[in-house]
């Protein structure tokens, strides 16, 4: 099975996000796998007028929130039905577009530069970083930032014959790969889970030199 088909199957089982969060907001950004938990988009700074790219944008809920804050947003996802769902829910939000494509192909073909690239349990977790990180770095504007999150679980999920492979690394391992790909100001943190028996969330950041 191809990754595109595997992700399309995954998409058919995905539940839509709630209409309202615990704070009563209709749009929000959540870096973690737990609802109403962890930091929000404020870690990205002022987003007004910024060009934001999300890699593996799913149903577009996180990205739509950034568009409501004045960012110019593009979401890329490999599964065609994700674009359809995102357009249905968020199609009327200005400065927000969704594209169905493999992120590596998108980054290779795009001539646009981005101020912010995010990926939330998204394509940075499911794509060979030796391929993807240099492509992201190339499309980041000077001083632009990459911020992404995934489960804090360094396991041996490395079977290359699976249609969907997770690239699980520690913060230190990501930092080394980001430096090699030309990123600066690299850092990582583990967002603690809401209950101690659950996995935390690894949040990784890197920037393009100014
Ligand atoms: C676990 S889901 C997370 C979706 C979304 N970021 C969220 O937080 O709800 C991973 C998403 O990444 C997309 N994806 C995985 N590999 C991709 C690739 N190579 N190119 C584009 N999208 C990809 C999948 O289709 C899926 O929608």
DSSP strand content: 15-25%
Can you tell me the number of structural domains? 1
Compute the gyration radius: what is it?
A: 16 Å
Secondary-structure element sequence?
HEHEHEHEHEHEE
Strand order of the largest sheet: 3-2-1-4-5-7-6
Q: What ligand species are in this complex?
A: S-adenosylmethionine
For the record, give the distance between the C-alpha atoms at the N and C termini, rounded to a whole number: 41 Å
Keywords: Methyltransferase, Transferase
Pfam family, one: Methyltransf_23
GO molecular function: methyltransferase activity
Protein name: Class I SAM-dependent methyltransferase
Protein model, in words:
With 210 residues, the protein is of the alpha/beta class. The chain has one domain (3-207): Vaccinia Virus protein VP39 (Rossmann fold), CATH 3.40.50. 28% of the residues lie in helices and 24% in strands. It has helices spanning 3-13, 61-68, 80-90, 103-109, 129-139, 171-180; strands spanning 51-55, 72-77, 96-100, 114-120, 140-151, 184-191, 201-207. Strands 3-2-1-4-5-7-6 form a 7-stranded mixed β-sheet, sandwiched between helices. Helix 4 (103-109) packs parallel to helix 5. The termini are far apart. S-adenosylmethionine is lined by residues 7, 56-58, 62, 76-79, 82, 102-103, 120-123, 126-127. GO terms for molecular function: methyltransferase activity. It comes from Lentzea alba.
